[in-house]
């Protein structure tokens, strides 16, 4: 297993694409449209085709009008890296004029590893002390 700081996850998390767009076209086509609208040179340069794309299930209140996020699995980590580099250089990433966000998506196992690593690092801070406390019944 790779060290936590060097995990190379190939998933991209797209936030803010309006709900109902996939009725007109598949989720993969939405991603290709985002790429051509925001990064036309990158699309021609790499010929990026997503390996898999899907909307995540609704976890929040179904009455609230928030769009479900899209998870896109890229065939190679270097494609994701290039997309994120281009997104950082561009001030605003949009889809049909609406601002969207691109982020890294980690599997549950990786997120747990990262959380565990953060807890371990916070315990090693200088000046932090741990106290052993016992309940009143344990003292008797």
UniProtKB/TrEMBL annotation:
It comes from the Eukaryota. Residues 11-105 form the L1 transposable element RRM domain. Pfam families: Transposase_22. InterPro entries: L1_RRM_dom (IPR043636), Transposase_22 (IPR004244). Residues 117-140 are annotated as: Disordered. PANTHER family: L1 TRANSPOSABLE ELEMENT-RELATED. Belongs to the transposase 22 family. This is L1 transposable element RRM domain-containing protein.
